[in-house]
Design brief:
It is built from 13 helices and seven strands. The chain is an alpha+beta fold. It folds into two domains: 178 residues, no CATH class; 142 residues, Histidine kinase-like ATPase, C-terminal domain (Heat Shock Protein 90, 2-Layer Sandwich), CATH 3.30.565. It has a five-stranded mixed β-sheet with strand order 2-4-5-7-6. A two-stranded antiparallel ribbon has the order 1-3. A hairpin with a 3-residue loop joins strand 4 and strand 5. Helix 1 packs antiparallel against helix 8, helix 4 packs antiparallel against helix 6 and helix 8 packs across helix 11. The chain starts with 7 loop residues before the first helix and ends with a helix. This is ATP-binding protein. One of its GO terms (molecular function) is ATP binding.
Length: 396
């Protein structure tokens, strides 16, 4: 089965491997060019043309598409290389007479590792392993047929050597992809844990708030009522306590929310976890302390902010870059701006498949009610990412 799931680290790793395979295959082909031309004298002409096209044509596609095309197309190019190699290795058995090539080995036998790496990029573990065994087996048979290495010992020796070499490249590629996938899972789990911590902190704050309200409001009102007759002061205190209880009840009815302090702690912790120096500034408007944000919205905003910081760490440049986060909080809204003075880029030239900007930042924010995100940048003038959320209840 062909894999279709894309991820952050996983996608970058897969594209890097595809590019390395494409460039490496082309260089391999150039290094083998004289040998290919020499052996073409002893093999049917159609096979050499087909073999070169089937192996090195997709390799050039991989090198060109690896970082600019949708990942599905990159995998298609890798699949063409894998299937093409398998086909020409099998056809070599009919394209040349027995012992026709006066060399030690065929060039198609020596490039079996290219098909093996391509298979890892396209198929799951078991299918890639089956491909490795089959492709090396066909290459060994073709080699034995073409150069007259027909004894059992020689074929086993050739098969073992080609299998070991191809397996090294395939296992390295497989390990890189597995490690990247594990990193993506751990990142998602860390975000989930951070959200869980935020929920627990919000609940603890609400419990403390209720305990304080019970002690300072309810108990003191009852105590005053037991000590004295009804007075205007007592009546106002009782009314204020009832109002606070109503506010608490309406707030508690809302599914898990976080208050401003918890939200800011969540954002600050996310920024500090990016391993780059970032100044964190908070600007509070009057009544900003009343802001309440649903936990899922807080999680989405922090995830988008984390992606902005990571993008800056990767792409803002290797020289000293100043980065800062400015959180501007109102009673019913918050705007978080991440700014760096790095190398910048042209947003209009970012490919649509690049998840960092299109999905992980802007797309995330636009999926939540009241959320929006913008990315402003210019080559040589840094980047500004703005995340905004407005409470829907305040707009109603």
């Amino acid at each position: 089965m062909i894999r279709t799931q894309e991820s952050n680290s996983g996608e970058r790793t897969e594209r890097s491997l595809a590019f390395a395979l494409g460039v490496g295959s082309v260089l391999y082909g150039l290094a083998e060019l004289l040998e290919i031309l020499h052996q073409a004298q002893f093999i049917d002409g159609w096979w050499t043309v087909l073999a070169v096209s089937a192996v090195f044509g997709p390799a050039m596609l991989l090198a060109g598409l690896a970082f600019v095309a949708p990942l599905e197309r990159v995998r298609i190019a890798a699949g063409l290389l894998a299937v093409g190699y398998l086909a020409v290795a099998a056809l070599a058995l009919v394209a040349m007479p027995f012992a026709a090539v006066p060399d030690d080995t065929l060039w198609i036998y020596r490039v079996a590792n290219l098909g093996a790496v391509a298979a890892v990029l396209v198929w799951r573990d078991t299918a890639a392993l089956a491909y490795l065994l089959a492709s090396v087996g066909l290459a060994t048979l073709a080699n034995a047929h073409g150069v007259a290495r027909a004894t059992g010992y020689e074929m086993v020796q050739d098969y073992t050597l080609a299998l070991a070499l191809s397996a090294v490249f395939a296992i390295c590629s497989w390990s890189a992809l597995r490690t990247a996938a594990a990193l993506d899972r751990e990142t998602a789990a860390a975000e989930l844990r951070a959200t869980s911590v935020a929920v627990d902190e919000a609940r603890e704050r609400e419990r403390n708030r209720f305990a304080a309200l019970t002690h300072d409001g309810v108990m003191s009102t009852l105590l005053e009522a037991s000590r004295a007759r009804e007075t205007p002061v007592l009546a106002r205190q009782a009314q204020r306590t009832l109002t606070q209880l109503d506010e608490f009840r309406s707030g508690a009815a809302d599914a898990a929310t976080v208050d401003l302090n918890t939200l800011l702690d969540f954002l600050r912790t996310t920024v500090q976890g990016a391993n780059v120096a970032v100044m964190f500034t908070v600007r509070r408007h009057p009544n900003a302390g009343r802001l309440r944000m649903p936990v899922d919205v807080a999680s989405t905003m922090t995830a988008a902010l984390a992606e902005a910081v990571r993008n800056s760490a990767r792409h803002a440049g290797s020289n000293r870059v100043d980065r800062q986060v400015i959180a501007t909080v109102g009673e019913h809204d918050i705007r978080v701006a991440f700014v760096d003075d790095g190398v910048g880029f042209d947003p209009a030239r970012v490919p649509t498949h690049r998840l960092g900007v299109a999905v992980s930042i802007v797309g995330r924010m636009e999926q939540i009610p009241g959320g929006s995100g913008t990315v402003e940048s210019k080559p040589g003038f840094g980047t500004r990412v703005t995340l905004t959320w407005v409470d829907g209840a305040s707009r109603a």
